């Protein structure tokens, strides 16, 4: 594991706004580092998302977690027991705004002197799982990993033919927010479009199973998902 430094940076966005992002960077590395964008849950760039960003930094990545609610609530961090508190910010999101935010975070990594621009990946959780799918349709990634990305089906299925990098998608078999017909529709759309994708359903896991700060945390599923995610990144030579 590498020692890391962390910082919050402010990035210009094409629509004239500015987005803050949490960045973890390895202190020592040989050659160029891989880059990864970590897209938040609906609860903001909180301790959980920062921890994941730091995990990737310790593995040698330059990792960046952009604050997707910067237009409606800069610095917002919600409670896992109060979903009503995030509705306003979720409702304020737009496809165009998310695409501009993707461009800003991706541009940061592309312009970072320490990052290999051919080895940039993205991952995300809940809201961020959906944004990872959007990012893979917009920018040149090496791999994308989506954890329980709600709302891809049916609204974003037309983006399936635009997917560029291989996708690994995790779902919870007990997740009532994303029923089986939805994640199967995502898989079917990607297959019909001829895209490289892997779909993993943890039968005894619920929505948010990867987050150890949520009541739905499933330690076994989280451990397996992390191992599979790292192997996926190895297999496609991200790191």
List its traits.
8-stranded mixed β-sheet; alpha/beta; single chain; about 240 residues; Rossmann fold; 8 strands
Question: In terms of per-residue confidence, which ranges show pLDDT below 50 for 5 or more consecutive residues?
Answer: none
Helix content: 25-40%
Reading side by side through the largest sheet, how are the strands ordered? 1-2-4-3-5-6-7-8
Q: What integer is the average pLDDT? A: 97
What is the overall number of helices? 6
Please provide the count of β strands.
8
- What would CATH call the homologous superfamily? Alpha/Beta hydrolase fold, catalytic domain
Label the overall shape: globular
- CATH class category name: Alpha Beta
Query: Over all CA atoms, what is the radius of gyration?
Result: 16 Å
How would you spell out the order of helices and strands?
EEEHEHHEHEEHEH
Give the helix/strand class: alpha/beta
Share of β-strand residues: 15-25%
- Stated plainly, the CATH topology is called Rossmann fold
Distance between the termini: 13 Å
Largest sheet, described in full?
8 strands, mixed
CATH architecture: 3-Layer(aba) Sandwich
Overall tally of domains: 1
